[in-house]
Every structure is written in C-alpha cells, then in structure tokens.
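Worked example 3. Consider a protein that binds iron/sulfur cluster.
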Amino acid sequence: MTNSFTDYKNGDVFLVIGANPAENHPQVMRHMGIAMATRGAKLIVADPRFTKTAAKADIYATLRPGTDIAFLYGIMNYAIQNGLYFYDYVLNYTNASFLVNPEYGFSDGLFTGFADGKYDTKTWAYQMNGDAIAKDPTLQDPRCVFQILKKHVSRYDIKTVCKITGTPEDVFKKVCDLYCSTGKPDKAGNLIYAMGITQSSHGSQNVRATAMLQLLLGNIGIAGGGVNAQRGESNVQGSTDQGILYHYLTGYLGSVNATLHPTLKDYLDKETPKTSFWSNKPKFLISMLKAWYGAKATKENDFCFDYVPKHDGKDHSHQAIFQQMSEGKIKGYFAWGQNPAVGGPNSTVARKALENLDWMVAVDLFETETASFWKAPGVNPANIKTEVFLLPTAFSYEKEGTVANSSRWIQWRWKAVEPPGKAKSDLWIAYEIFKAVRKEYQAGGKFPAPILDMVWDYDLPGHDEPDIMKIAKEMNGYTVADGATLDAFSKLKDDGSTACGVWIYAGYMFEDPVLKVPASQRRSREDKSGLGLFPKWSFAWPANRRIVYNRCSADPSGKPWDPKRMLVSWDGAQWVNNDVPDFGFKDATTGAFITPDKSAVNCYIMTTEGVGRLFAPTGCKDGPLPEHYEPVESPVNNLMSKQQNNPVAVKYKGDFAKLAPTASPDFPYIGTTHRLVEHYQSGAVTRSCPNLAELQPEMFASISPGLAKKLGVKPGDMVAVSSIRGEIKCRANVLPIIKPFKIDGKEIELIGLPWHYGFSGIATGATANDITPSVGDPNVMIPESKAFLCNVKKA
Amino acid sequence: MKQKISRRDFLKFLGLGTAGTALLEGATAIPAFASTAEDKLPTFDLGPLKIKKAKETASVCAFCGCGCGLIVYSEGDRVIHIEGDPDNPNNEGSMCSKGIALGDANTIVDKNRKRVVNNRRIMDVLYRAPGSNKWEKKDWDWALAEIAKRVKKTRDETFEEKDEKGVTVNRTQAICHIGSASCDNEENYLFQKMQRAMGVINIDHHARL
Ligand code: SF4
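Given these inputs, the predicted complex is written out as structure tokens:
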C-alpha cells in the first residue's frame, strides 16, 4: 500500500474494487467507518457480488468478473471528457507531457510490436531530444502521453463500458461523478483493491489502471489517498520483501539471469539505471552479498556473486513449478507454511503432481492437505512412493519475530507461550535443517562452497533457539568494521564496508534514541500531525516513511495542495515535514536544504523519468496501456476488439492445459472464488480451530434465486459445480447477493465459491480450486481464479 | 479522590462482563447460564478475576494483512484469552472473528471444560515412508539428518555448476521451496538464504497467488 490503514481516516471517497474488506480485511471497515462518521466520506463498492462491504456502500456497482479495466477506463474517460482530472498534478507529476515514439500505435486490440506471440517494446519508447525526453507542456501534441491516453480511453464511453461490465448506466454515471469529485487539490480519493484485481490473466494491467486513475485525479502521495493493495496474509508483505520469489532476491533486487548477468559487472551495468533511486542498486546488492557471505565476500572475488544461483530466464513461478513437478523434473519439495493442495489453482492436477516427488519436507501447524496428499480421498497410498517429513512448527505467539502488515509496518511480536509438544519455531527448523545440510557437505559434494560459505552462525549460547537479534541485525545492516547497526540505507556502500541483508529494512532494528528499543518494537502512539502517521509505532519501510511519494502532496513550489493534509511543506527557506520526505530535501554532506524545484521533477523517485507513468514505455509485457480483454474463459466475445484475450497470457501444458472455449454451452456460468471472514486462506489453521469451524463448517456455492428456481435447488441442497477440469459437490447457498449480469442483452449467471475447504481439519469440504484454471498474467503469472466458466446441477 | 481506571483496566473489566464464560473456569458458570429459562437473567457470583494471574504478551494477529495488535493472556503454556491491543493504532482494541479465535490454534476447551492443547496440532516429527498409509513418529535428530541426506542426493544428482555457455550458474532445478507469508520476516530471510545457498531457483509463495 502507498498509504497506511491509519491514514484511511483522511479519505473523502473510497473506491473499493476487487476487494471485500468486511470479510477479508475486517479492520478496514473500522478505518473507513471513521472517515465516514467524522468527515462524511463516501464509499463506492464495485464487485460481482453484493458483499458485506457492499452492504455498507453509498453506491454499489455490480461488475462482471474480469472487466475491471473497462470499469476504470470508463471513469478515466469521464474525468478527461468532463475536465474533472487534477490538471496541475497530471502536468507536473506524471508523464502526460512526454512525447512517445511516432511509430507507436494501437489497432484492434493489439499494440505495435506484436509478433510471434510476444511484444517487442521498442515502439513504446519516449521520443528523445538528445539525452532529454521530448515534451509538450501544452499537452496538445497528438504524440504526447495525455493525448494518446485520451484517445485510447475515449472508446470506453458509459454505454460501451456498461455493456461489458453489466453495471447499470445510471449507477455507473453516479460512480464517475462521485469518484471524480476527488480530482481537486483539497479532496482525497482512496482506491482499495485486493485479489479481485490481481487474479486475472491481465492482473498487472488491472493494477496499472488503478494507479493511472489515481494519478489522473492526483490521489497518490497524499494523505487520505493512495493505491492501496490490501494484502491477504499477516506477513505477505514481509515474505515478499525477503525475496521468497524466483524473480527477486531481497528488497526487490532482481534475481540473477545466467544470460544477462554472467558476472557482477554485467548485473550492475545492466540493472542499474542512471537516474532514479535505483541508481544506488550496487550499494544494496553488494551489501546483501556481504551480509550473506561475510568475510568470504571480497572485492577480488566479486563479493561471491558467482555463488548466487542464476536462473535461465524461464518461468519458475508457482504454476510453472507444479507443471515441472507433473513432468517429473522436481524431486524434492519444501512445503513451508503453505498449502497448495487447496490454495493453488487447478488443485486436483496439482495434488497429482505431488505424487512424482521423491521427498517432501512439510513444515506446518496442522496436517495440511499438501502434507497428506497421499491419503486424499480416492488416492491409493500404496501407489505413492513419496517420502514425507512433516515437521511440527510454532504458531505466531509461540515464538518471536516481526511481521510487516499491508501498511509496510514491521511490527514485533513477543512470545507468549511455548509451542506444544516437540514443535519448534520455523526459525529453529530452518536453522537446524541447513546446519545438517552443511554437515553433509563438509564431507564433500558438488560445489559445496556456496553452502559452506553462507553466513550461518546464529547459535545463542545457553539457548535452543537461534539468536534472532543477530539475524535481524544482519537484515537491518551494519558496518563491517565495528558491527554497528545502521540507521538507514543511505549509509550503505558498494565497497564491502557495509553488510545489509534486506536494504529496505535498514533501520528496523536501529535503537530509537528516546524509547531505547529497536524501531520495530516501538509502541508510542505519538502522532503530532493528527494525520494518523504514528511515526513512533513500529517501523515502516522504507525509512519509516508512512506515505510514499509524499512530495506529490505539495505543488511544485512546495506548497501543500491541501494545508489540512500537510505531509511536507517548503516555507521558502526550509522544508517542514510531518512525514519522512520521499525525495531529496537535504544535502547529505552540507546539510543544506534542497529547493523544491529539484524534487518537483523527481517526485516519483523509483521511476527513471522521475514522474508517475500514465503510459508505461517499459515494464509490462502486455502493452504500455491497459486494454480490456475477456478472461481466458469467458461467456462472451470481447466487444472492444477482435483480440478475445490478453494476447500474451501464459498458459500451461499437459493436464494443466484444459480450458473451456468462449461461450461454452457445457459451462454457461461464470465461476468466481472468494473468502469468508471466519477462515484464513486454505483453512489450514482455521478449519482446525473449533470456534471458527463451527461458524463456517462446510463448503457451499452461492447461486442466484433465479438460477436456483430454474434448477429446482433449495437452500442447503447439494449441488455439483463443474468446470472443464472437474467437479466438486457442496451445498447451495441461495441468496440475492448474487444476481445474473446483463451483458450486451444476455443474462449471465454467477457462481460464488469460497476456496477455504479441503479434506483435513474439523471443517471439511470440497476444494474450489479443484475446478479453477491454470492461466497466468504474463508479467507475474498470477492465476485467473476470479473468472472462469462452470456449470451447476442439482446433485 | 476517585480512583482513575486506565483504558486497559476498563477493557479488562469489559472483557470479563461480555466474555465471562470463556474466562471463568469453575463449574459455577455453567448451571447459571444453563438455567436462563423464563426470561430471568442469570445471577451468579463471578468470583475472583480468573485472568488476574495471567501473563500478558503483546502480539500481532497471524491472519490477514491488517496487522491488528493483540494481547495474549496465558497461564503456563495455555492461552486463556486473546483481546485486541487498545494501544495499537491499527485496531485500537477491536478484532474480527478470526483474530478473537486466535487462541484456538494453541488451546481449546475440552468436554470437561478444561483448557488443553488443540489436539489437532502436530506435536511430533512425523514421517511417511514410500507406499505407506500412515504417519510414524520420529525424533528431530533423525529427521534433520535424513532430510539433509535427501537434499544432498537430489542436489548433487541434478546440480548444474555451469550452463552450456560456461557461465557459473550454481543451481539445481529439481528442488523447490514454496512458502510462506504466514512466517516471520526473520524466518523467511533464513529460508531464502538457505535455498539460494543450495542453488534452488524454484522459489515461490502466497504472494504469487
Ligand atoms: S483480527 Fe481480523 S482484521 Fe485484524 S489482523 Fe486478524 S484477521 Fe485481520
């Protein structure tokens, strides 16, 4: 999230699209409620189902799954056509005035550069005047980003949008009017999304569309605004920060590609941009290598760069891993605190793939469906050769450590009780497993150096648990010479004199000079600005900044757009700040203030052009602008172009390849998965908690009263829900929270499926993901679980 | 002078009033509630505050990304009660149904209304042999050593030190690691360090889904 939950109270209008906080982020209802009660904030909810969140909305807009781009473009088009966008913000803080290559074009659903199933992005580049990007500050040149965007979204008029999304036209117009009211200097619109936006074959472009709308209305970098991606797990922000991903090392440093980065020099040359904050990348990477390989990492040996495994440029994401497993290429699997046998797409086929493993190490609290796949209903254990080690682990309050919430707040959790029986913390388990592996390699083996040279010395004398403070300090960063904990990543060096495991976490363990505790353990409710920044409660990465891109809260001269929401302010001689500035405001060596003109042109410090991207010349594999495509499985043809689906969507092979054709007569309904407030993810924990199991004991499918009548199904009857991938049986939940969509004159039914259930635990039930498709967004390979084709029959 | 009660004390009293049955151990509470017949409110002696001996520990919810602060009340190794941390700006004392039930993962109340460990928790190292239809209990030392052997065998059999162009790639494609957004930062940091040291490139987790 660009902002924090405690900032929600400053919002004027909330647009919740593809999120259902009342069930999935319940605390958000309180934060939005404060804004609604104290400042009359309004809530818009766009969702395929009339959710519990929608029940609290001022405007509820129904929206067919997978049509978010059309919806968001409709609002953008309305803002541009009616002059409701924030002109000064757009002109100064976005690339609206930048000129694009004259060869760039778009026709019938395809951008220029498409050949052989992929895009060459050359024609999407900016026009250059020597070293500088060519610009037209009048925003009139037909080649400038603003005009390109205006033309592109002009195709999304209210009538067209509503034909695609199924939103009633009058409701959609109300949404446009209300949300565009935030395109003013003294109004803030907060755009909230979650998996409804991301789980799509064009998920990245959905996200782009949310950001573009917020840029147009000047809602990023300000209190009460933001693009707020509400994250689903207590530490999914943190686990992502730590690089539990094939394509990132820690702190979003790209992983190493054998072809592009055979040497450290290649990596640094190719991956370090000349402009933007990423120009510091060598300091972050080399400090990370120094943290990992300690004294073994020297300038002479490129800081052990060779030890970091290099990938082959291919897809190694969740779905690709399972495909490899099904092909017998993966032999060993660490299933650590995650339950893909229920939580991953196309899970019947995924469970089958597990049978090809030689061994699995499952680390969990309860017996998950993944750990016990060999005794799933209908499976004969005698035929499965996989060895499974199931290691008992500690729950959150049975150990200590930090978790980063969606606001990027890294909060410390103290230990309350011992884990039961022989259970151990995940920290202990990881520490001991790798110690055992190192022991094996002491006797030799293939290339043991990276294993033996990795820093792994966290013994704490007299204690069974490893020294978490030492691990945390390594992540935070220290100076090599004296071991002093660093306070900020600005201190990192690229010469090996600093070590820092996770550069964005620099400062999280630095002792607060007043409170005398590491920053992440702070518990002060001090909030001088009254804006809910709480600078001394835990630590927010990066740099304890609570609202990122906060330079944009003030005009180019440094005057806050809205004095009531002041985050940073230039008083003519100096900067006066409520939040930690997200821009160069003080010269590091002289201590002199840097005048606002410098930061005004570099307010989005992570982009090479220094401004927000309404048009993305690089970074996306599927176009510089979002475009509406149908989900890969859709009941209708794409009204916008001949291009039915995202032309570069990722599809998988073998048993993972099954997809229903457009408007399949066998699977006439749209299936969508969702969550419930009583359960958490695959239910691995909550389905074994008696109170929660009692509250939501069983799997169900929500269907509309009309469809129930047609099928002769009464509430509570068993139904069979099928897709081309299989069938599940569960109870019917018949409620008018589901209504058929009117799509271009056709009525199309929706089936809602909670995805928490499986065969283990107290509350058991059919697994929704058994019937979801294996399709991936081309940029991030997230599966398309929110929109697929299915059928329902009385069972 | 009137004694000032802090917000925390107030919430503690409130907690007793609204969640009394959950907090009281003695048998007295059961008949009192069981006799709620004929629109008569039950009256019974609350007795001494049963959480007064409890240890209070500040924690953060293990479920969604809101990061609600909570206070774990425990006695020995059993969790007695969980309530929202009134000081934590994320939630200021409130929690949802999942957070309130967080204690269930460790402690449940059995049929005799005694607090016991949630009997579904895995409390031993379990091993399933090839073709077997059951778990066997094992000890940690055995499991750690056996896992290390499996890792070494798979890694060494499939290890690619250099690719076809002679670039040092130091990888195995035959091992994968998936998880976890439910683990702490420090834990995840160790997971990826160890996997990368072993040359594992098939690394992913919840964030992808
Ligand atoms: S108590 Fe509920 S809202 Fe708060 S973090 Fe836990 S799951 Fe999320």
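Take a moment to read the result before moving on. The CA atoms of residues 25 and 113 of chain B lie 7 Å apart. The longest strand of chain B covers residues 168-178.
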